[in-house]
Write a structure and sequence with these properties.
Two copies of one chain form a homodimer. Chain A is about 40% helix and about 20% strand. By secondary structure, chain A is an alpha/beta fold. Chain A has two domains: about 70 residues, Arc Repressor Mutant, subunit A (Orthogonal Bundle), CATH 1.10.10; about 110 residues, Rossmann fold (3-Layer(aba) Sandwich), CATH 3.40.50.720. Chain A has a seven-stranded mixed β-sheet with strand order 5-6-4-3-7-8-9, with helices on both faces. Chain A has a two-stranded antiparallel ribbon with strand order 1-2. In chain A, strand 3, helix 5 and strand 4 form a beta-alpha-beta unit. In chain A, helix 1 runs antiparallel to helix 4 and helix 2 crosses helix 3. The longest helix of chain A is centred in the first third of the chain and has 19 residues. Chains A and B meet through helix 1, helix 5, strand 8 and helix 8 of A and helix 1, helix 5, strand 8 and helix 8 of B.
């Protein structure tokens, strides 16, 4: 089994999706599944799934399909979700707090190790066991934590400055929720979650 | 000016992005911009932008570029953002509440007209001026509102049932935040915002 140098973002996202579907099957007590059944149940493409998985070696058993536990475990390892990833959350407004709460659920491989805000009523207070620091202290605080990924949930006007502070502090990846076009640092993996643009797209199709 | 029958999702998302950038220029007091300046400032492709806009007729003035106010106004109309879109929010947990708060800001063309949850401590209470209804009443309540779009922010296990209730209630588009693969209704435009998958993608690249 040789791994390709770099998996595409689309393939990776599909692998995440397969894993999620497998976990649903585990919860339902299903132990074996064929690619055809799997694809039909979750409305996926069976051939694409077989192709995606074939990339990473022999997963299925010819004629029997996949052992659900096995495939889930192998995808978990492959995706690096068998270890903890430390996160910093910048912006503890209602969205940032909701994300922090969501991501702190125990079954997730993500752990929040630092939280930041500019609001004097929040700074110094705790969220769970974490003290909220002032965002201006990002360059000082981040290197003291093991945070590799930052979740950016600040207003658009503050996003670029926070992003730059994060990149100089050693953060390697940023998940941006601020509705703005960030000038990206080439060495920092950056993804934007832009639900406002998704909503505008839906609105367009209803108007037209 | 003839409009194409259907603009692709990618083109639409870029138009939303141009509009957002134009609003930043408006806020900064910029009145005119060339496609080259615009593209450079926001790290976009100038040629793609010219092509996208040329689709919809003559926007720019040769040699002078674009009048910011004009272009922003025309994109606003084109995207259907010059009128109010009524939303229902299903799932008033921390994420749903954060989304509701975010979307209720005055400058947005989205108005929340219905809210639902299954939690007895929330049902019957108000969020802003809206009473939170029980999710089982979606088929009864939605037709009494003018909601066209639903924001789905319920746990994965509840998402499919809510989605089906929404589609039979006359909802025409759904923005799904539940981390699950919905079996989609062909007549309902459905977009998923899946930040868990985005986060897993970032984690993968850090692990590898």
């Amino acid at each position: 089994m040789t791994e390709p140098a770099e998996i595409s973002s689309l393939t990776l996202n599909r692998l995440s999706l397969y894993l999620r579907c497998l976990r649903q099957l585990q919860d339902a007590g299903t132990t074996h599944v064929s690619s055809g059944q799997f694809a039909q149940h979750f409305e996926l493409s069976a051939s694409l799934m077989r192709k995606d998985l074939a990339h990473f070696g022999e997963f299925g058993i010819r004629g029997t399909g996949y052992r659900v536990d096995d495939l889930a475990a192998r995808l978990t390892t492959l995706l690096g979700l068998d270890r903890i990833h430390n996160l910093a959350v910048v912006g503890m407004g209602s969205l940032g707090s909701a994300l922090a709460r969501y991501l702190s659920f125990n079954d997730k491989p993500f752990r929040i190790v630092a939280a930041f805000d500019v609001d004097g009523r929040k700074v110094g207070h705790k969220i769970g066991h974490l003290v909220i620091h002032h965002s201006r202290d990002i360059p000082e605080v981040i290197p003291q934590t093991e945070a590799q990924i930052a979740v950016l949930s600040v207003p658009a006007s503050a996003a670029q400055q926070c992003y730059e502070d994060l990149t100089v502090s050693g953060i390697e990846a940023v998940l941006n929720f601020a509705p703005t076009q960030l000038k990206q640092h080439p060495a920092v993996r950056t993804k934007s979650v832009d639900f406002q643009i998704n909503l505008e797209e839906l609105a367009y199709f209803l108007s037209s």
